[in-house]
Automatic annotation (TrEMBL):
This is ABC transporter substrate-binding protein. Belongs to the bacterial solute-binding protein 1 family. The keyword Signal applies. It comes from Roseibium aestuarii. SUPFAM superfamilies: Periplasmic binding protein-like II. Residues 1-23 form the signal peptide.
């Protein structure tokens, strides 16, 4: 009888403790976008589940929120409605928009120890250009990227080109593209030499040409653009001429999402897309392929891109502490290496590349190093206040020039006038 009473007491105590622990668990909602093919969403969910298994006092509802554009719209809408997530991955370029909307809090207040400050200092400086402003850190790099060239080595060999050498300059891209563009007996193109997407993120894929021509599209304060700079006009003219003059790229708007598939199926011998597609291409390309930095004109250059973690207002200190701990965990070497190998996104901290897992992977698959090495020449992605509107003006200008509705100079001058009207109040 005494034993039975004791067992009941122990069971009651255990139940009471379990109920108390559950009540004390920190609940987080985490939005994440996926902008590339492959199983990125499953990898994110798996890592989130792993964190919760090791941190039973934290419950994270990981919500796949669509594209980057979908995600920023959803977090703004949810925040305005008083139902913001505590944590989200949003484009690094949307930092000024989130600050302007007064939606986010800086990480600095939650990184107080020497160890935490050392962790913050360990991210690649080029990624932090779109993560810090006014002496504060608003974004933590996670699924970060640069655009790179991919080329079909079999197509190069068939065209009489060295399959191990990519075009390194604007002139070589045209030269190689002409040799790689194939037509049938009726004059119809069966293989394009070059494919550069102009939907989805047209400003980003184009930005590499502007940077390599020695000009950036916006200042570091996010309140002034240089869309009508002569070097930007020259870069856009080159972009247009790939189709209109040189005939090495399909005319009109080229779809972002269809680009890897066009590569797999031999529709284009060279493509430009994000390194975030690297694992997708590695898995699905039925031929040997190479990866290279973007071609140069005056210099090497590429924009950084991809998503940062942001903390949102309205969360409790306990939630923000837990969110910061999760961010530190998922960007740590073991998890970061897993994410890079699963997707191709650039591990944003040098220490990840020193792990045995990454050293082994890079030795077997050296293409993974290209985007990392390109960071030496990379500049911040186009980012301004009211970023969605301003990049919209620029994307419209690109489309107008690509489709022949306006000259590059006319289109960019109009976009600059529109951007000035929006950004004047922020200067």
């Amino acid at each position: 009888m005494l034993k039975s009473t004791l067992l009941k007491a122990v069971a009651t105590t255990a139940l009471t403790f379990s109920t108390w622990a559950s009540a004390q668990a920190v609940d987080l909602q985490f939005y994440f976008p996926v902008a590339v093919g492959g199983g990125a969403a499953e990898v994110i969910q798996g890592m989130t589940d792993e964190y919760m298994a090791n941190h039973p006092d934290v419950k994270i509802d990981a919500v796949y929120s669509g594209s980057y554009q979908d995600t920023v719209a959803k977090v703004i809408t949810a925040s305005r409605g008083g139902n913001a997530p505590q944590l989200s991955v949003v484009l690094s370029a949307d930092m000024y928009t989130l600050i302007d909307e007064d939606l986010v809090v800086p990480f600095d207040d939650y990184l107080t120890t020497d160890e935490e400050k050392a962790w913050l200092a360990g991210f690649y400086p080029s990624f932090m250009e779109n993560s810090q402003t006014g002496g504060k850190t608003y974004g933590i790099p996670f699924q970060r990227s640069t655009p790179v060239l991919y080329w079909n080595k079999e197509a190069f060999k068939a065209a009489g080109l060295d399959p191990e050498v990519a075009p390194a300059s604007w002139d070589e891209l045209v030269e190689f593209g002409k040799k790689l563009t194939k037509k049938d007996a009726n004059g119809n193109v069966t293989q394009w030499g070059v494919r550069i997407p102009s939907s989805g993120f047209p400003y980003w894929t184009f930005q590499g040409f502007a940077i390599s021509n020695g000009v950036t599209l916006a200042n570091a304060e996010g309140n002034k653009t240089s869309f009508d700079d002569p070097k930007v006009v020259e870069a856009l003219q080159y972009f247009v001429d790939l189709s209109a003059k040189h005939g090495v790229m399909a005319p009109g708007i080229i779809e972002w999402g269809a680009t890897p598939k066009a590569f797999f199926e031999g529709e284009s011998a060279i493509i430009l897309t994000t390194t975030g597609n690297l694992t997708n291409i590695k898995t699905n390309a039925p031929f040997d392929f190479g990866v290279a930095m973007l071609p140069e004109k005056e210099q090497r250059g590429a924009p950084t891109g991809g998503g940062n973690f942001y903390l949102f207002k309205g969360a409790s200190d306990e939630q923000l502490d837990a969110a910061v701990d999760f961010v530190q965990w998922i960007t740590a070497p073991a998890q970061s290496a897993k994410w890079t190998m699963a997707t191709g996104y650039v591990a944003p901290r040098a220490e990840t590349w020193e792990t045995e897992a990454m050293k082994t992977y890079a030795a077997e698959f050296p293409q993974v190093l290209v985007a990392r090495d390109q960071l030496e020449f990379a500049k911040a992605e186009l980012s301004t206040y009211q970023n969605q509107r301003v990049t919209g003006f620029f994307n419209d200008a690109l489309a107008a020039a690509i489709t022949g509705q306006k000259t590059p100079e006319e289109a960019l001058k109009e976009a600059q006038t529109q951007a000035d009207a929006v950004l004047a109040e922020y200067r």
